[in-house]
Amino acid sequence: MDVGIDRLGFYTPKKYIDIVELAEARDVDPNKFTIGIGQSKQAVPDVYQDAVTMAAEAADKVLDDDNRNDIGLVIVGTESSVDESKATSAFLMDLLDLPEDVRAFEIKEACYGATAGLQMAYNFVAMNPDKKALVIASDIARYGIKTPGEVTQGAGAVSMIVSQNPHILKLDNKSVYMSRNVGDFWRPTFSKTAFARGKYSNEIYVEFFTTLWKRFQEKYDMTAEDFDTMLFHIPYTKMGMKALRTLDGQIPAAHYDKLVEHYQKSIEFSRNVGNLYTGSLYLGLISYLVNGNVQPDEKLMLFSYGSGAVGEIYSAEVVAGFDKYLDSEFIKEELNNRQKISVPDYETIFSEELENAGITKLEDVHDKFYLSEIKESERLYKKVN
Ligand code: COA
């Protein structure tokens, strides 16, 4: 029985800043941000948005009356959750009209959370073929104004329905993983912004990739030429390239060039949205499926990395006819129809938040799901009808 991703959805906030304008405001050569880091635009979430509302937006795009009642497992991977106790998934139960007979919970391991969720979903569906799983990655990447990480911020969510006989991607149960206690990136519970040893995290990321890639090849007797495409966790678009570059000179040049060409297609959306943390790898998958010249039955390698740190390489196969199940034009249209805001306006939004006893005015809401109120420190959410 084939198990894998049957539907894929993506949401990013409707506001963004231009990275050249950010560079100018920070007195930095724009080429550093656009070429050295590899970003063009950065999503800016509104004050009424958070990991819950974005998860709801993304999941709403893949749920329908045919699949909703088949869902038996809901997992949200996030490192920007709003509550230390209540899982993001609990808020989604009524926002998305999910059936009550599901296991719904949240997973945290930095940018690796969604991959953990996806692998659990794979096992769940393999054991319960008549059921489906909903896996969501939702995050706001916040480093802080005028920090080195600011250029690598972003926000958004990716949703996946995992089922038997999937229409988009078959997972083939080939996987290697590793975990180690590493101080490359962390966000203590008191802090709304992350702390990062940026250059160290680059080194660990590349080291995890090379270690896992060697193990993957040994375990499955495969090489880079067995894969048409390699997808990477993309906190900023230059980062995956640092890992891919380790293959330059190690594999036939024509195949390396093909992998680079496909990588360029996989980063188009991230370049215009920024870091989705745990959704980044899956935004890369969507970007490749939408923008690449994808062949039926194409073999993909996916490298997932979460600081702290966990890494995993697994493989998958594109299902012929996947394009009928992915609304590429709608995704592109949503990205093109966003509103550019100025750097000072972004700085204002960045420092604003709904206070306890605060209520969001409906006329300020430009999305379907929103944080409507904070009452006795409890966050309450609503859907615009
Ligand atoms: N034109 C073109 N490229 C330029 C440039 C210019 N004018 N000026 C600098 N660059 C290049 C540098 O050569 C460097 O390239 P390299 O990484 O290939 O060596 C790149 O731009 C970044 O420059 P650097 O001086 O290293 O930037 P920085 O000290 O501001 O730090 C990060 C960059 C990514 C480390 C920082 O943004 C950060 O900490 N980000 C968050 C960490 C993160 O995302 N971690 C991932 C967790 S998985």
Automatic annotation (TrEMBL):
Keywords: Transferase. Residues 259-350 form the Hydroxymethylglutaryl-coenzyme A synthase C-terminal domain. Gene3D superfamilies: 3.40.47.10. It comes from the Bacteria. Residues 2-164 form the Hydroxymethylglutaryl-coenzyme A synthase N-terminal domain. The keyword Membrane does not apply. (3S)-3-hydroxy-3-methylglutaryl-CoA binds at residues 29, 143, 242, 275. NCBIfam families: HMG-CoA-S_prok. Belongs to the thiolase-like superfamily. HMG-CoA synthase family. This is Hydroxymethylglutaryl-CoA synthase.
